[in-house]
Protein: ATP-binding cassette subfamily B protein
Organism: Desulfosoma caldarium
Amino acid sequence: MMGQGPQKPGEHQLKRAWVFLKPLVGRYAWRLVFGFLCLAVVDLLQLWIPRVMKHAVDGVSTGEDSGWLAVRVAQIVVLALIIAVLRYFWRYFLLGFSRLLEKDIRRTMLAHVLTLDRTALHGRSPGDILALSGNDLASVQLAAGMGLVAFVDAIFMSLAALAFMAALHGTLTAVAVAPLPFLALATRSLSGRLHARFVKVQEKFSELTECARTTLTSIRLFKAYNQEESQTARFDALGRAYVHHNLRAAIVEGTLFPFAGLVSNASVLLVLYFGGLLTMHQALTAGDFVAFMAYLHLLTWPMMAFGWVANLFQRGLTSLQRIQELLADRAALEDPPRPVRLPTAPFTLQLHGCTFAYPAMETPALQDCSVTLTPGITGLVGPTGAGKSTLCAILTRLYPVPRGAYTVNGCDVNDLGIADLRSLMAYVPQEGVLFSDTVAANIAFGKPDATLEEIQAVARAAVIHDEIVAMASGYETRLGEKGVRLSGGQRQRIALARALLLDRPILIIDDALSAVDTETEQRILKELAKRCQGKTCLIISHRIAQLADAHRLLVMDNGRIVDSGSHHDLLQRNPFYRTIHQHQTRMSCAR
């Protein structure tokens, strides 16, 4: 489940980040080696140019000829060309490494999210996960790319430049670095505040992303209820909060970076003053002074970079902690250490006094529920909120159950592999989830290698074939997001066709024909009767008359099965069943 939020970065957080990144970094270690090797050579060549400039200036001072000066200029040009080539290669290797790292973390996140069940995802919104895979991961990539490059470059360039400067004049070098401790103190004191404010920025971005996602996926609902202005106002309020926290972080950022510039400029002023005095008293040649100033100019970038790098690393570490919190979430459902072999068909599913409550809910959705599903078609009816959909979720292993509460052919489901058990089942949920793809691809979702003939056969069984053929491009017609271009009944029948294509021994249909007219539903049920011979099939429907021919009917209320039997038996002895049947019969006659 979700943690308490990223804490202030410390040794523990850094170690945790390194443990996570180490195998990913090791995968591309050769890129880092070649990249940093090219970077080191570039830095050394940049540091060599001031030495060439020193000799050129000293040569002019001593009256060397123009040919000698031309040689020095040519040397600088050649060095600049080599630097340009090597700079391309270090960018290719090092920035490429950060993109590969980003790709691997994103793939790890997706693979992990797909292992989580509904219980584990209960405390996270889709917008939060989208923000983690977008904005947060981008911060990690930037820290691992330009942040890491700038950090290593700043360290190497600083040490090398100081060594070259000390070789020219040790005392002047000490004067130049005198302001640096102030930069270190400022970076240390501001890093904690940066971290805390970046946490808030990322949290607000998650909320903003979730609001945008909700708006886009529910736009028809907002229009139907005339809520466009209120939703726009809510999005605007979240946007203002996001900007507010960004500005608070920018205040700290805006303090650190200019302060680094102030420190570097202080070093320049000190060197200009004391170096000028040394040159005037001939303790330093003009060439040495020019070279020293050039080295100081090269040292200015690392001093400025430390503030920028601290900023990038704080953002990256904050985002990585948020990503690690997601990866630390664990599914409540886990495979047993040694899964037993699956039983063979036909299958009998049994719940034995199963009680289940959703997270953060006090009232159980299932209360001491016992049911046996045998081969053949079993119908399930009950009032809204009786627990019918929860029963489907338990049967398909979307939630955990205690040992002994659910068996398949006598085998406890806790001893079976989750994927193995689900491979026996085809499930049609109420909402009829569709993807922004072709009709054929949506039907073949669970069996991508299905032929067009197979797809058409199950579409006919779901009584949707003729309507698909009438579409602009037939089975190649692209559906909008969530099948927005289709009616509710069309979405449900395409989802049913998808399940039928799998041809599995257990079929569970959760009121997935509620948007289909009575005549079409009757045709579908007749097709199901043909296809479900020898299979275990559970059909939930609010239309009792359509389930009259089922092998067995179950009546559910208050989270438990309260009665079972044939249609005729239930009409005789169950008041609820009889009342609903009479009401639906009157409604049908009224039409």
